[in-house]
Amino acid sequence: MQKIKSKYFFLIIPILIFSGISFYIINLIITTLKFDPSKNETLSSRTYSYVILSSKNKVISKLSRKFEIDNSEHKVPILFKYSFISSEDKRFYKHNGINLISISRAFLNNIKSGYVKEGGSTITQQVSRLLFLNNDLSFQRKIKELFISLILEFRYDKNQILKFYLNNIYLGSGAYGVNEASQVYFGKLIQELTLSEIALITGLAPAPSIYSPYQNIELAIENRNKVLESMYLDGYISLENKNKAIKEKINLNYQTPDNFLNDKLLINFILEETDKRIENKNDYKFLRIKSSINKDWQETAQKISRYIEPKEIEFALISIESNTGLIRTMVTSRNPSINEYNRVTSSVRPLGSTFKIIPYTAALIEGTKLRDKFDDLPTCWQNYCPKNFSEKYRGSISLIESFKSSSNIVPISITKKIGLKNIINLANSFGLGYSQKLEEFPSLGIGSHGDSLLNITNAYSTINNNGKMHSPSILEKIESFNNQSIWENKFISKKILDLKVNKKIKKLLEKSVQEGTSKAAFITGEKIYGKTGTSDANKDLWFIGSIDNLTTGIWIGYDDNKESQLSSGNAAYLWKKFITEIYKISIKK
Question: CA Rg, the chain, in Å?
Answer without folding.
Answer: 32
